[in-house]
Every structure is written in structure tokens, then in C-alpha cells.
User: Fold Outer membrane beta-barrel porin/alpha-amylase from Sediminitomix flava.
Amino acid sequence: MPHYIKYLFCCLTLIISINGANAQELFILNDAATPMPKGVWGVRGQVEYYEEGTAQRYMTSVRLMYGAFSKTSIYLTLTGSNHHGSKLEDDFISHTHSGSGLAPEYPFAFAGIHLFGKYSFLSLDEQNRHFRMAAYGAISSSNAAHDETEPRLMDDTSGGELGLITTWLNKRFAVSLTLGGILPLAYTETQFPNTIYERDVELQFGRAVKYNLSFGYLLYPKKYKDYEQANYNAYVEFLGKAFEDAVVLFDGEPQELQTAFLRQGHYVEMHLGIQKIIRSKSRIELSVGFSLINEALIHQTPIVNLAYQVFLFKERK
Assistant:
């Protein structure tokens, strides 16, 4: 893994330095402000992988996308993972994920459902360039026993999210900024049922602000000949988030937090990606992420994402 990551980093750095500002806005980890065409359907499959001590963690998702109106896009995503068990660990209030290096093994299971909507309200277009803005909202329902304060609606926590996307494209170069606020719902369960130690647990995750910045470069072709021509893009995406302390209640009584995993924090990651677009309607992409400032609580790095996406529309005549 480390040798592969170093090799990918060197290759992307070399490609970007040679080609300069070459890009498209089909970002791997962030959505652009541009809407899907009206009436067009899309399907996306994605696998996320990282290592936590001795455990290998996976998250897979299947997304159905639809251009509902000329300015409105809707995504419905189903996720599964082995990130969490069906119940919190008895000592979750003091867990450290460290020590012997051993990590708990969890079965792969359905994690949740996520609904995303985007409305593009501003579009300033010129030849080979544009500036666009969109507002988005998302809600999720997750049954995961998430034990860190940092929320992630895709598969870890239930809740809602609102934000803005700003995208600028100039010929082969694109940049997009996403700013959003996350309001997670609490997780509840009963521990030690039918014993003298039985207690009702409520874990209120911290509210969060996310700040993502994506850069893209169109590497090839230098000049389009037809829609059948393959398209190669390189991406550098910075993902950041700041979140509050969690609140833990046992039978309604607040508890002292005894682990950094339930404390407030912030971080920034850098993700390097490469993408191939096939016949202007499908794409395959790979990215690898590293911690730049502090570390996320919801995963460890390096983290790898592999995805395939296809748009379903009538063939051009």
C-alpha cells in the first residue's frame, strides 16, 4: 500500500506540472454546481477502503441519480459497511482505538439510506467557461452504532445537511468550493438489558461544518474529435470538517467524556484522483486520500475510493 500511494502521488504531480490547467468538473468526491440534464438517469457504484489497526474497513454504495428538472438533480444512495457493530461497545465512552493495534471485527451489513437534492440557481456561461452556484440539501437514515462525535450522513449517522456549491470552469481547468452544515440526530440503545446494570444510552453527535475544495484538470484529449473519444482527468480535492463535542447520556444523566473520539475537532485531507470518461456517458475513477491537518475520526488514512458511474440516455444519432 505505501509504495503504491507514493507512486500515484508522483505520477499525478508530474502529469499536472506538464499539462498545466487541463480539466473538467466531474469531481470524484464532491458534486459540482452544474445540474444533471433534465430526464437523464444515472447509476454510480463506489467502494471505500482503509485499514484500522489489524482490521480492513470497507464501505460500498449504490447511487441512483435523476435530473428531475432543468435546474434540479436528485440522488438516492444505499450504503453498506463493516465500520460498526449493531450495538455500541460497553466502554465506548472511553475507547481509544489503540493499544495493542488490534481492532474489532464487524460483519458487513446494510448501513443506511441517503437522499440528496441540488438546485442550481446561478449560471453565468461563456464559450469554454462558466461560473455556477447551487444550493443543496440532504437527509439520511442510518442504523449504525457510530461511536465517534464526527458525523457522516452517508453511512454513519442519521440527520440533515444544507449547503452551497460554487463551481468555476475555464477551458481545461475547474475549481469547486462546497460549504455545508450538518445536523446529526442522536443514536439511542439500551445496554445490559434485563440485568441490574440496564441503562438507556443516548449519544448526541456533534454538529459539524464541512469545507471542501476541488481542483480538476483535463489531461487528454488536447482537442475533441467526437463523442466516442476517451477523456482523462486528474483531480486534487481537499476535504475538511469541524465538529463539536458529543453529549453522552446514561438514563438521562450527562456523562464525562473520557476519549478524544467524542471530543470536538477539525481536520483537512488531500485526495489525489485519476478518472477516465468513456464515450461521454460513463466513467471509472480512483482516488487516494491523506491527512494534511489533524485526522478524521470517522476513518483512518490512507483511504482509497474506487467508483464507476454511467448515465442512461438515448444514443446520439
